[in-house]
Amino acid sequence: MTPPRVLAIGAHPDDAEFFAGGALAGFAAQGAEVGIVVCTDGARGGATGGEALAGRRRAEAERAATTLGIRAPVFLGHADGSLVADDALRRDLVREIRRERPDLVLLHDPTTLWTPLGETVHLGHSDHRAAGQATLDAVYPRLLLASFYPDLVDEGFAPWLVRELWLFDTARPDHFVPIADTSERKRRALACHESQHVPGLLAAASAIESAFSCGAGHEAFRRLRLV
Ligand SMILES: [Zn+2]
């Protein structure tokens, strides 16, 4: 069954489509409301970083979202490369989750130090772990209780219960989504990130899709049902 509202929370402007673009495009095609939150400004994602790169990456992420058939991402603007799962980030995430009121949240697995890829490994990123940890800490208990961030409640961001979490960027998946129908769209979305090394991005996405025993053509998640 397609959840009516889906929210993916990534550390960087390309993470949601890299790890879950096929699943997100599939949800959107089935009529779900799908959103993306990007925690950092992406300003260190290149040899010469800074504000110009952050602006460019934001535009790329907006084009990628359009390609996936979903609305423009929300950027929280935390510093790329320095993300920490602190209360400022948790508060931002509670606000955005309360705003979107999703049934399903997709997030980085905060425990991923590396992912085995055949004989080599794909190293995890500290921003990914921080984004995943802050999202888990936002979902429980902060999202549920008006005693957390009462000023947000006063602004209309009422407590909310997420029903299910799918952890992407995980070395221990237990849920595999076939993306044969959406793989092409995912690849076109990844190709929107022209400031990144697109052939490398596409190759890495294929390697991760192929890393687990179900074979290529799937995205892998760890599925946590909360209710
Ligand atoms: Zn990333």
Attribute tags:
alpha/beta; globular; binds zinc ion; 22% strand; Rossmann fold; 7-stranded mixed β-sheet; two-stranded antiparallel sheet; 227 residues
Task: Please explain how this structure is put together.
This protein has one domain (5-225): Rossmann fold. The protein has 7 helices and 9 strands, in the order βαβαβαβββααββααβ. The protein has helices spanning 15-29, 51-68, 87-100, 126-142, 150-154, 183-191, 198-210; strands spanning 5-10, 33-40, 74-78, 104-108, 114-117, 120-123, 164-168, 175-178, 218-225. A 7-stranded mixed β-sheet has the order 3-2-1-4-7-9-8, with helices on both faces. Helix 1 (15-29) links the parallel strand 1 and strand 2. Helix 1 crosses helix 6 (183-191) and helix 2 runs antiparallel to helix 6 (183-191). Bound molecules: zinc ion. The site of zinc ion has 5 residues, from loops.
